[in-house]
Amino acid sequence: MKAGYLAIGLALAAGCAAAEPVIVASGAYPEGLLWQGGRMYFTEMGADRVSIIGNGTTQQFWSDPGCGPTSIAPFGPNGFLINCHLGKHVVEISATGVTGRRFRNAGSVPIQDPNASVTDGQGGVFFSDSGIFSVSAPATGKVYHLTAMGVMSEVVGQIRYANGVAFDPGTRTLFVSEHLNRRILALTLDRSQRVTATRVFADFAKVPAARSHTYPEAGPDGIVLRPGVLVVAEYGEGRVHVFDRDGNHRKTLSVAMPFVDTVAFDGEGNLYAGGSFQNMRPPYEGAVVRFAPAEWQTAD
Asked: Which homologous superfamily does the CATH classification assign to the domain defined by 6-297?
C-alpha cells in the first residue's frame, strides 16, 4: 500500500461541479459493496469484519480475526463467500453469518491475494487473486472460479494485478480490472468457464477523464454492472467512471476517498461507492457514499 491523505480527496471532490454524494457509512477500509436481499453489505479489511448499512447506522454481520476481508458475494443456495485478502483464503458463510468451509488452494496452488468477487448466477463465484501490487512486478494476477460444490479452477492468469470482477450471464462475459495496466478486460467464457475470446473493454489511456493520474499505482478497481452501463471505481484518484456497455465513457463522478475501491447499485438505482481516505495507517479510515440516479445517469 501507498500513502494517501484526506486532503487529496477533499480537493478532488471540490473540483466536481455536481452535488456531493450522501455519506451513508464510515468504515475501516470499506470494500466489497454488495446489495443482496434488500440489504447493503460491505467488507472492512481494517477491522476484519463484514457490516450491513441500514437506517443511517452500520451493524456487524460477521467477523474473523486475521481475515482482512475485501469482498463478499452470494454463494451456494443462500449463503456467501468472503475473500480473506490478508488471510490468503476464501471462506463460506451462511445467510446468518455462520462460518463454514475454508478454501486455501486451487488444486496444488495456494491462493495468495483474493480480492474481488462476483456470483456466476448459478451458486458459484468468480474471484480475483491479484498478485503483487507494484508497477514493476510481473503479471501474476489470476481469476478463479469456485463452484457451490467447492471445485476451484483457474479461469485466466498473467494479469497485472487482477482486481475488480463482474459477470454478465446473458453474454457470458467476465469483466476484469487489470489495475496496473489501467484497463478493463472483457473475457467471453464457455459453459466450462474457459476463455474463448478476450478484448479490451476500456483503456484508461484512451479515456480523457481517466488518462491523467497523480497516484503511481492508480487504476480500475471494483466494477458493477447494470442494464446498459458498467461502473468502475478508480483507486488512487477518487474517481468513479460510468461506461455504456460498448465501452464508451459517459460520466465521471468524484468522491472524497482517494482510494475508492468498490461500487454497487441498490434496488432503487442509487449508486454506492466506498473506499479509504488513506492506505498507510491502520485501520484505514474510509466511507461509503451514495449517488441518486439523476446524479450518475446524466452524461458529461
From this structure: TolB, C-terminal domain (2.120.10.30)
